[in-house]
Design goal:
The protein is mainly alpha-helical and 196 residues long. The chain has 2 domains: 14-118 and 130-146, no CATH class; 150-196, no CATH class. The protein has helices at residues 20-33, 39-49, 55-67, 72-115, 119-144, 154-170, 175-194. Helix 2 (39-49) crosses helix 5 (119-144). 23% of the residues are buried.
Length: 196
């Protein structure tokens, strides 16, 4: 078992999950908490509560998870499971992310199919959309603090975030182009800054 190296100035973290069962139940709980949007709770659980990683490590792993194909948080769970227990850990974390939530999602889909045309259901879903947006924005604000120690500095990171926002919201570029162009540029700039 090995964990990611501690970054300079970062607070020490716990050694990680105790075993694969801990991984399974932790990711099950994470998936059930974030029913409808795990992204909003994943940072709080893994960094603040479990202390399996620092904010900086979370930011780096989350960036990799977003670039990989598939759901971001599932990718992250596989990466963390593999980091601590290899292939067994990856499968345990993946099973935790998918097993119980799949059962609940199937049940919710059956209920929704019965009530989808009801006006109260449509209103409730619109209200939950606003809540989900607030949760995601809150997580984003928490991660801004981790950018202060980024090798590019906070101004360049803010500029990259602004360009990313503009490309997605105003220019409506597809995600893969934003990742390729803006993400590739940010990776190159960071590499040049930290290269010996």
């Amino acid at each position: 078992m090995h964990s990611a190296p501690l970054l300079p100035g970062a607070a020490p973290v716990a050694p990680g999950p105790r075993n694969t069962a801990d991984l399974f139940w932790s990711f099950t709980w994470l998936a059930l908490q974030g029913f409808g949007g795990v992204v909003a709770v994943v940072q709080r659980e893994l960094v603040e509560k479990k202390r399996w990683m620092t904010n900086e490590e979370f930011l780096e792993d989350w960036a990799v998870a977003q670039v990989m194909p598939g759901p971001n948080v599932v990718n992250l769970s596989i990466m963390i499971g593999d980091r601590h227990f290899g292939l067994r850990g990856a499968f345990a974390a993946l099973a935790g992310m998918l097993s119980f939530p799949l059962v609940l999602a199937l049940g919710a889909a059956m209920v929704y199919a019965q009530w989808a045309s009801h006006p109260a259901m449509a209103g409730a879903l619109r209200g939950m959309g606003a809540v989900a947006a607030g949760l995601i924005a809150g997580m984003g604000l928490k991660l801004v603090a981790a950018l202060r120690t980024h090798p590019l500095g906070s101004r360049v990171c803010a500029a990259v975030a602004g360009v990313t926002f503009a490309a997605m919201v105003w220019l409506r570029l597809p995600l893969y182009w934003v990742l390729l162009l803006v993400g590739g540029t940010a990776c190159l700039l960071t590499w040049r800054r930290i290269a010996p």
